[in-house]
Amino acid sequence: MSTNVAELFVQTLKNAGVQRIWGIPGDSLNAFTEAMRRDGGIRWMHMRHEEAAAFAAGAEAEVTGELAVAAGSCGPGNLHFINGLFDANRTRVPVLAIASHIPLAEIGSGYFQETHPQDLFQECSVYCELISDASQLPWVLENALRAAVSERGVAVVVVPGDVFFQEAPDRRPSSPIRAAVSRVMPAAAELQAAADILNTAKKVTILAGAGVAGAHDEVVALAERLQAPIVHALRGKPHIEYDNPFDVGMTGLLGFASGYRAMDKCDALLMLGTDFPYRQFYPEKAQIIQIDLRGSQLGRRTPVDVGLVGDVKSAASALLPLIEEGRASKHLTDSVKHYRKTRRELDELAANDGKRPIHPQYVARLVDELAAKDAVFTADVGTPTIWAARYLRMTGERMLLGSFVHGSMASAMPQALGAAGVDPARQVVALAGDGGLAMLMGDLISITQNDLPVKIVVFNNSSLNFVELEMKAAGIVNFATDLHNPNFADVATSVGITGIRVEDPADLEDALQRAFAVPGAALVDVVVAREELSIPPAITAAQAKGFTLWALRTVMSGRGDELLDLADVNIVRRIFG
């Protein structure tokens, strides 16, 4: 019996180690899903929205480091994919998107559901090709798999529905295509140039990003030799924060004062595997060395004195013997001392003062204390990411996922599905914003349909909270940010998820313990303070002016109660504890 294109497609994916595919079926995908059904070797993870399927696939790829797959039908199905695929591509995780298409002979005719998927996916992929004849399949699919795993991005294969039914060509298959770790060593002359700057500097600070993954020990050893505090960007947090006596916290809009100060006071900044985008947080007078696997990223955020192309593990190991020993430790000592003070102040804000609504910092702190030591956390953009960044402690086994580069709402819940699909025995906790959860709330049903024991903690402040903070900083009266929310616990219960609502801080710990203990999925809907301020580590004159204007305009618009709530939630407890 001959093999058709869909069957060969499925067999190739199995050979590449694919275990599940996230998506929604449709008529243009029928041959493919039928081939999956007959083969039985790959699990179909049915979702309610293609965007959620793409987020889930991206999370699976980030957790495993291996290829993950999403599939959807033509036209609107393809369009729904795009935002989630943008996130995966910008996060640089290997994802294959199978985008089925209208019948081959109808392309260009304005046919029902016709789009131009190659154009649509061009900007959110590293590879995108159309299979218009069965003879193309083996090499187009293999090229797509290689592009996804080697370039660490999204590869899209567009297949008209009728092409899936065509007889597959005979071709000797390549060896299974799997992700591999490559090592890139900077040139010796560049390493020496970097060492010369570091050896003459008196106050070195390290800024570590996602590129330090797998290089924890090498970076810590380099920091010890340099007597340098280590500041991390958000995506570097899971990889460098733990078991690190040189850690002084995070910088950036979500960070806190000690990280900003350690960079501001240095005379040499060593950037390791980071594309930290916020130029205003870089030191103005320090010499800067940047090491990155991608040469295109060198110097694109701040001018650099020495740029080195290489992976952090190899580069840090090679740089270490070039660094002189016996360095002064005052910069490190001062930075660590300031960090401990800042950390203590942040922890004080996460205490339970018994007031309603509940402080979101307290929620995040309890989640950290009660979650498993190897938990995977996902966080929605906005204030859930702030509290995750500040209060979730990394252990070397924990992971923190989010739309941290693309910055999309609604990622936490579907990313939690993707992480849980990899290993249902591993605890997965989503820190969801009320706005983010509501945006893709239909995929709560996907949690129960796919039997995934995801835990969701909702920060319910009835607002687009981070947008409100940005309005305050710009001197704008809050407008169009109110959210009229349902009882999310009741919604969860209606789809077969254990739902718990918490309004009193005295009930929170028991509620979280119960949610984490139930064998299946659980959602805890926590009513949190809307007027909680997340102060950035450095406030510009424009932000201070904007906040003053916001206060004045708020009072003048007859909404002075908001200002009183803000003072009660923030200023009073900071002064009087």
UniProtKB/TrEMBL annotation:
SUPFAM superfamilies the record matches: DHS-like NAD/FAD-binding domain, Thiamin diphosphate-binding fold (THDP-binding)
Region (Membrane-binding domain): 532-573
GO BP terms in the entry: pyruvate catabolic process
Keyword Glycoprotein: no
GO cellular component terms given for this protein: plasma membrane
Binding site for FAD: 251-254, 274-278, 292
Residues annotated as site: Moves into active site upon enzyme activation, plays a role in electron transfer: 466
Pfam families, per database record: TPP_enzyme_C, TPP_enzyme_M, TPP_enzyme_N
Keyword set, alphabetical order: Cell membrane, FAD, Flavoprotein, Lipid-binding, Magnesium, Membrane, Metal-binding, Nucleotide-binding, Oxidoreductase, Pyruvate, Thiamine pyrophosphate, Ubiquinone
CDD domains: TPP_POX
Binding site for Mg(2+): 434, 461
Residue ranges constituting the Thiamine pyrophosphate enzyme central domain according to the UniProt record: 191-319
One GO molecular-function entry: ubiquinone binding
Activity regulation information from UniProt: The C-terminus inhibits activity; it has to move for the enzyme to be active. Activated by lipid-binding, which occurs via the C-terminus.
Domain Thiamine pyrophosphate enzyme TPP-binding per the UniProt entry, residue ranges: 380-526
Protein EC: 1.2.5.1
Function, in words: A peripheral cell membrane enzyme that catalyzes the oxidative decarboxylation of pyruvate to form acetate and CO(2). It channels electrons from the cytoplasm to the respiratory chain at the cell membrane via ubiquinone.
Family: Belongs to the TPP enzyme family.
Name by which UniProt lists this protein: Pyruvate dehydrogenase [ubiquinone]
